[in-house]
Write a structure and sequence with these properties.
Structural class: alpha+beta
CATH class of the largest domain: Mainly Beta
CATH topology of the largest domain: Jelly Rolls
GO cellular component, one term: cytosol
Order of helices and strands: HHEEEEEEHEEHHHHHH
GO molecular function: DNA-binding transcription factor activity; kinase activity
Radius of gyration: 18 Å
Keywords: Kinase, Transferase
CATH superfamily of the largest domain: Jelly Rolls
Helix content: 40-55%
Strand order of the largest sheet: 1-8-3-6
Largest sheet: 4 strands, antiparallel
Protein name: cAMP-binding domain of CRP or a regulatory subunit of cAMP-dependent protein kinases
Length: 192
């Protein structure tokens, strides 16, 4: 499999990995095109894959017992996505990962990746740096939910995802912000 040089540069932005390791990574990786609406990880599924998003947009959400969806996060290129806790604990995922648009991803076998990390310090460092980045994004999101009002959370999202209003349906944005679509509409009108 060929890989894109910019994807290699992206990986090296976390930690320098020797180019020969790239082939080992590619051996446990499958490049896939995913159609809009496809669930990469289903609710209750015990996952075994992690994803590097190359193009398109993903969302991560949870579903309450009453069937209501709450968006936890959106993923833009180039980023990593996957149910980390479920992978580490080998337990069913509490979250669903779904394509909001047609996407291209590298699908990586998590357990084979862990075996490679155990054998190779450079790869282990890359994994640690990626986990740190994921954790910092999660912590930032938590702080925003606790400390910002809905308008400020919306403005923050607009900074993080340029053109968010054209890319993501209003009801998904509202769910991510923890408000109703009607409230989001009012916020947009006030900001105009």
């Amino acid at each position: 499999m060929n890989y894109n040089e910019s994807h290699y540069e992206f990986l090296n932005s976390f930690s320098n990995i020797p180019e020969e390791l790239v082939q080992e990574l590619l051996n446990i990786t499958e490049f896939k095109t995913i159609k809009e609406g496809t669930q990469l990880v289903k609710l209750g599924e015990v996952p075994s894959k992690v994803y590097m998003l190359v193009s398109g947009m993903l969302r991560c959400f949870l579903i309450t017992e009453s069937g209501k969806e709450f968006n936890k996060s959106f993923y833009l290129p180039i980023s990593f996505a996957g149910p980390v806790a479920a992978l580490i604990q080998k337990k069913p995922s509490l979250f669903v990962f779904e394509a909001l648009s047609d996407c291209e991803v590298y699908e990586i076998d998590y357990y084979k990746l862990m075996a490679l990390c155990n054998k190779n310090e450079s790869l282990n460092m890359l994994y640690s740096k990626v986990l740190e980045t994921v954790y910092m994004a999660y912590e930032k999101r938590l702080v925003e939910l606790i400390s910002l009002n809905a308008t400020d959370r919306y403005l923050q999202l607009k900074k993080q995802v340029p053109g968010v209003d054209e890319l993501i349906p209003q009801y998904h944005i509202a769910s991510y912000l923890g408000i109703t679509p009607v409230q989001l509409s009012r916020i947009r009108k006030k900001l105009e």
